[in-house]
Amino acid sequence: MKITASTKGLLISLGVCIAAFAIYFLFLAKKNEYLIDNPTNDTYYFKINNGNEQTIASGQYFKVDLNKGKNNIQVFDKQKKLLYDSAFEVKKYRGLINITHQDYFVHTQYYGYNIKKDSLLLTLDKTNIDNELYLGSPKKFNSLYTEAFYYNIDEKYDAIVKNVQKVESRSKIFRKQDFLNYYKEYYPSK
Question: Where are the transmembrane segments (predicted)?
């Protein structure tokens, strides 16, 4: 059987399309995950939606399965004494469970061509963290659950955003100490 030039072109273009989708989904697609985090020095036990008891050690975070809608969590200390039994609502595709109610900060990073980040940051509110003011209005969060971010604690900001014709922003949630370290590195003049 002889393959015509147009059939070869069709097969090549289909192969390129399949390769492009494979590269995107394997390497470029953003993961939609729910994480549970323990930034303290203590170990905790928890059950989500009356499932199996799980352990989260000091400084650990990991992926958990949540349902859209109402979810519940029971949290126990290292002696397995019930600390609280609470419910929370899941609406989006990524979120963070803060079982220790520690301070986290959601920071917004701006991208764009010829962006003047210093003057942009000065127009935003300041946030007081440990009696120091931080530009860019990082939002403090210490409740049980949040979805108010784009990048989770295990992800980094994109080094490059493709659409640079206008100013765009992405928000990331940080543990408190991670945010302070990031801020000092990214804004060294502070």
Answer: 9-29
pTM tops 0.70 = yes
Strands 139-141, 34-37: pairing kind = unpaired
3-class state of residue 109 by DSSP: strand
Residue with tokens 């959601």: 106
Q: Are residues 37 and 126 in the same domain?
A: yes
* CA–CA separation, 185 and 131 (whole Å): 19
Residue 26 shares a structural domain with residue 110: no
Residues 53-92: tens digit of each pLDDT: 999 999 999 999 999 999 999 999 999 999 999 999 999 9
174: enclosing H helix or E strand:
strand 168-175
Q: DSSP letter for 179, please.
A: H
Say if residues 90 and 34 touch (Cβ distance below 8 Å): yes
Total domains present in the chain: 2
Range of the domain at 23: 1-30
What separation, in Å, do the N-terminal and C-terminal C-alpha atoms of the chain show?
71
Q: According to the model, what pLDDT value does residue 5 have?
A: 83
Cα 190 from Cα 120, distance rounded (Å): 15
User: What does the longest C-alpha to C-alpha distance in the chain come to?
Assistant: 78
CA distance 130 to 135: 14
